[in-house]
Amino acid sequence: MVSVFISHTHGDKPLADALSRLIKSLFDGRIAVHYSSNRDLDEGIAPGEDWGQWIVNQVRSTDMALILMTPASIQKPWLIWEAGAVAGAAIAISEKNNRVVPIAFGVSSSEVPSPFARTQIVDGREKEGISRLMDSFFSILEIKSSENSYIITNDYSRRFERCKNSDIEEY
Length: 171
Prior knowledge:
Layout: E1 2-7, H1 13-27, E2 31-34, H2 51-61, E3 64-69, H3 77-92, E4 99-104, E5 122-123, H4 127-140, H5 149-167
Parallel strand pairs: 1-2, 1-3, 3-4, 4-5
């Protein structure tokens, strides 16, 4: 099973929830989504668990880290630490092709922290950005793009908009 870790600040939990629901609804159990504020014990931090160790374990085992960049989160050192740790784990464990994917919500390219300057950033407010992100999951899962790619793309863009709009207003 493919594992995805969402790095976010506590205040960006609605974004993490929306992305998690989208991924789960599209890939029906083929992708496990983990993030610290998730209340599901299999996908978040269990009561009494050491949260620092939990994050280290996620960083070591993830196939892809989605780094949620918002005006608040880019001010936090954990965001850069988690992204760097995932990238470092990918280098240390050369057989894995871990990827760090920054997703910007309300952050301009000039505000993006310098460690991400060389990384292709997904604009989370744009349909095309979310569509390209979901396409990368299809690729990881080795699901071939079909002739209906446009329909699929529009479907998951609509699903994310519904998830996002039900939880998020300020982005």
